[in-house]
Batch of 2 targets.
Target 1
Amino acid sequence: MYRYDEFDHAFVTSRVAQFRDQVARRLAGDLTEDQFKPLRLQNGLYLQLHAYMLRIAIPYGVLSSRQLRQLAMIARTWDRGFGHFTTRQNIQLNWTKLEDAPAMLAALAEVEMHCIQTSGNCIRNTTADPYAGVAPDEIEDPRVWAEVIRQWSSIHPEFLFLPRKFKIALTGAAEDRAAIAFHDIGLRMVKGRGDNAGQIGFQVFVGGGQGRTPYVALLLNDFLPREHLLSFLEAAMRVYNLHGRRDNIYKARIKILVNALGADEFRRQVMAEWAKIEKPSIDLPAEEYQRIAKYFAPLQLATLPNDDAAVAKRRASDAGFARWLRNNVMAHKVAGYRIVNISFKEPGKVPGDASSAQMEAVAALAEQYGHDEIRVTYQQNLVLPTVALKDVVAVYDALVENGLATGNTELITDIIACPGLDYCSLANARAIPVAQAIALRFANPAVVDDIGPLRLNISGCINACGHHHSGNIGILGVDKKGTEHYQITLGGSPKDDAEIGGILGPSFPAEEVPDAIETIVGVYKAGRTSASETFLAAYRRMGAKPFKEALYGAPKPAAQRIPEGV
Amino acid sequence: MARRSPPLNVFPRECEMTKLWKNGGFAADVFVAVDDATPLPVATPVIVTLKRWREARAEVLALAVPVGLAADVTAALDPASDELGRLALIVIPFQKFTDGRGYSLARRLRDEFGFRGEIRATGEVLIDQLPLMLRCGFDSFVISHGPTLRALAAGQTSQVPEVYQTAAYGRARTTLRFATRPKLAAAE
Ligand code: HEM
Ligand code: SF4
């Protein structure tokens, strides 16, 4: 993974000093709260319902054991002994005291971590495929470019006061595991065709996002030679910074500009800007690319046999292990190795919450069996990207001890949920208890396995932090006359076939949500052509009608069930 | 009526104190800003609106004094038809410090239009944003915020000295990004 050099260290140290000075000036009254707030946000300090939240950047979701141990220590020393992995591959501490923040930042700097630009109207932490560098379907490792973007965007003087926040995601693989279609800019590494044959470049998508006006990103550039990435990003950002709306916070994201102008006109403006930009002064010098790329050189792994007698034996005798192996352990690009997904979605637990002890357990496993590497997924889980197949049994046993061996990756109980009303001042409704209730309803692993791949996402309000729009089943908390209600959408997808889910009908009170989900799943199971037809495929074939009828009754107009409407 | 720049004063509370900061220190402002209703002054550097610059350019140039333009972040400047090369100064307003359009406008002027005159920030110019403005190509600042004036007078800045991006430091373009990083012998 990338290692800071003296320059990066000096940068982060200077930034901590700058923020300490800004806090002091705020306390002395030289900065008003309005003047201080954007500075505070750009250092990851967010004011929530009960306390400050510190959002720590995990660049493109990559952690070392040492970093994860330090996060555990910070959570134990200055917070309540747990952290929350987020859908942007970051970690949040929800009970931070303002006066502790500088010490926490200094502890992070010790392990090459920071909170820079995890909040505020600037370019946020860049996210990437959690299987980067190890996935069999990869064209090129996107972490190199994610690190380039991290450096380029850090205190970029032109782009710290954008109309609104800006999120970039990258993938280098055939399968999109980074939800690039739901980002302000999504980048996919591709092999050039025709005139570009033999080159690697980026397909650039723009204007995706969730929130109250969800959009799937549009294609901006079909092939951008990779060496021009920074100048092209700079051109696109400049057009957005100059023309994005600033009169209405809800219309300030780039998606609104792109869709108001149309993809063609937006593309024309970006291309015109890019043509005028002095590319050589902005694009990454080749030596610098090589310097960064060296840190991501593939591990030198001795190839091992692709089957293992001990694993086979355990699989035959232990159904829990067999299930975990099937659902959480994925193929690695090197024979004899596996990608191990660690679920933080044990039914009944808070999705994405990790105790300090659990973080330390994963750090130890990564050290002993995982080449010291850990990844965070946007589904709020962790990954050990490189584990020898022969070690998989030992890893499993250690995970069982720490309550981390749930075998439910990408299944119905692998729920993404935002903090909701338990923490968030913008919430209409709680998200965490609803996630817990649904997961407990589907606590029988055999039932979950039979349902198959199903992404269920929950947000506590229309800001859509929990990605409900892109869930195969999406649940949105709404406020109906002062009570928490939940609206259900079906058919969303965060992957290559990205789509925004459609609203099924009137909302339900919290206690009826698990029943409603069970009904929906029942319609799917009764209607699927075979066990291999996924929920999403079946929904797309069957349409919303049978689901609506099952939930709201066929002849009865939907509005009668909950007369006051939504 | 002629008045001193800036035309825009967003800090009425502290309006008694407005100073021009350039080249690392406070300096006298030789320019006089005039609105469209005011006759052009004689024998003094003048700042005019874009409207006047477009509609009465010959009259302005006939003054034979350095001319400044009060830019508008929403109006597109055309380097050719707007004859930016004949301007000594372009003034970019920051109505609010959170409105970042001025940064992109300055970079356009420097990097795309090759403007080499003075670029001046007015409005809500604060100590924490001043280093960013410098790096985007601004080289003078009209400041009325008390704490910012005090900090500058005391020689304090709020800057992270290490920078990753290419940027214009005032008028001198420097390629700072990555170039400031000490070369590593070999990646460990
Ligand atoms: C409790 C503190 C939080 C607050 C106040 C908050 C606030 C917001 C707001 C206002 C938006 C909408 C912005 C917009 O689209 O213009 C948003 C979007 C988003 N938030 Fe949060 N959020 C919080 C926590 C989180 C957490 C914990 C996560 C991750 C699990 C998260 C992930 C996201 C994501 C992914 C979006 C993107 C929606 C999009 O792309 O349009 N947020 N958040
Ligand atoms: S979706 Fe709404 S409730 Fe949930 S974290 Fe975001 S702003 Fe808060």
Target 2
Amino acid sequence: MNGAARIVVDRLVKRFGDFTALDGVSFEVAPGEIMGFLGPNGAGKSTLIRILCGLLHPSQGRAQVAGIDVAKDPEAVRTRIGYMSQKFSLYNDLSVVENLRFFGGIYGVGRERIDARVTEAVSMAGLSGREDTLVANLAGGWKQRLALGAAILHRPPVLFLDEPTSGVDPESRRRFWDLIHTLGGEGISVLVSTHYMDEAEYCHRIALISGGRLAALGTPRDIKRLGKEAGAEAAEPTMEDAFVALVGQAQGGRAAA
Amino acid sequence: MLGRILQLLLKEFLQLKRDKSARLRLLIPPMIQMVLFGYAATFEVFDVSTVILDLDRSQESRALIDAFVHSSRFRIAVPAASEREVRDAVETSDAQVGLVIPPGFAELLRKGRTAPIQALVDGTNSNTALIALGYVGQIAGSFSQDYARDLAQRTGRLQGKPMVSVILRERYWYNPNLNSRWFFVPGVIGTLALITIVNLCAFAIVREREVGTLEQILVTPIRPVEFIIGKTLPFFLIGLMEVAIVASVGMLWFRVPFRGNPFVLLLGTCLFLLAALAIGLLISTVCTTQQQAFSSNFFVLNPLFILSGFSFPIASMPPALQYFTYIDPLRYYLVIIRATFLKGVGIEALWHQMLALAIIAFVLLAAAVLRFRKSLD
Ligand SMILES: Nc1ncnc2c1ncn2[C@@H]1O[C@H](COP(=O)(O)OP(=O)(O)OP(=O)(O)O)[C@@H](O)[C@H]1O
Ligand SMILES: [Mg+2]
């Protein structure tokens, strides 16, 4: 992976009034890379993703997505990203196909391509034959896969997924991650936040965020090693052990400072 | 651009088709209003704007005018110079009552004969008109009593008949029976359109914000103007339909006449709906939950309704409050809708109102577009 980075985040700071939600975060994501965001509630994961989508303005620092500065040209960024927000965000009162056509339409997918893309998204979500079902009547796992399909109708090179699998059964989560890996294999860079430790293992690299700062960055194996160095007691620390140790260390460090 | 707007339009109509509560929101308010105003109460009025034309210029005529000036019921605007001025003032609703004291008024009185004065009232606002007319009768009555007593003392003759009688001139009688339905039906059309359109528009956007779909739309390349057009155009069309339906009910069921030019009404309606949509949009930019939108709607719509002059005559409001009525789009639309229905006046008499509506709509829409940013900051 020596191509130019798809996402460049450089000493990014975000303040909400007096409160600093992000405090100097830096990292890069390569094409096709799946980067996981791990961190306790309120760590700043959603804030970071929203900045990268151009929904929030950075207070300081720089962020580039697909070569474009998000603060300078958020509109250009929007044609190159897919985004699934933390809240489920398809229309419950529209059918599967109506949702897809709507989002395809406002993403500007041309008339000649929209049918094929919609069919593809439907089969990716495993919803072939249920095209006219109202989204409200779908079970959680199908909804999430459909939302993913809607987010990539315009074939963006970068995909942001904010806790895409929260509240979904394990089997559906596994299928969802299969899809993420397929997309990564096609060269799409995926930035995904999660609360599930087992999902962290599926990522190429993990960024551990705590209190708005990057507590650790590396492959799952790196993270476990760092966790051991940070004081995880088990001989073979699990991701959970490493997470607890590293977050504890980051918070302790800040308290001492 | 057009493609994206069409997608939004299509989506909005599909959702509306499936949204039962939206259909209720469209149907219930008209019903309630129709029933409520069917039993419209009477109100006291003060400061009824009045023009007086004194063609007699006698001591007696001045005494009668004084009696009007000193009552708190009438506010005498500039005295008119001709019958034409009186008629114009009433026709354009500058004045609600016009009084004409014909030449020979004093002469008739002195001879002990009945002296008529003429009253023109703006029957389109039958509530105010009826009440104001009552006051005219009272004041004329007490004037004539005083004069009769005076005359009797001077001449020793007693009069049987009242000396000053009030004659109403049919010509300017837009609502001859002062049928309150004729008055309230056009008013209901305006208030209904306002309430439903502001509500629908504000809720449609706030709901998307609340459930999270708005955030999803914001990350697409859609432009704010495209979003606003796509989101509001359906409600604009619904507003037009609603006005047409309520107007038809008023004409067919309540037998309210439509005397004016439908295109003048259409123009006024379009401008008014734009202002209503802008109000809805502005509400949606400050609210994040439907609960907030609900209370904002309440706090915005109530004053608009009260200040419009629908149920409380603007002239009877405290002067400070009267200034606020100038920024109320409903105030202008009510004049347009009553004038086109009942008076049949054309655009010449209504361009003030049209212009005011256009300015209000433009300013509010511009504010809404500026406030609607594609970010969550
Ligand atoms: N618009 C805002 N105004 C003020 N504070 C905010 C705003 N958005 C987020 N915050 C605060 O910033 C911090 C980080 O929030 P963020 O949503 O990014 O956390 P998160 O890591 O996504 O948490 P979770 O796992 O609960 O989703 C929180 O303390 C939150 O209260
Ligand atoms: Mg979050």
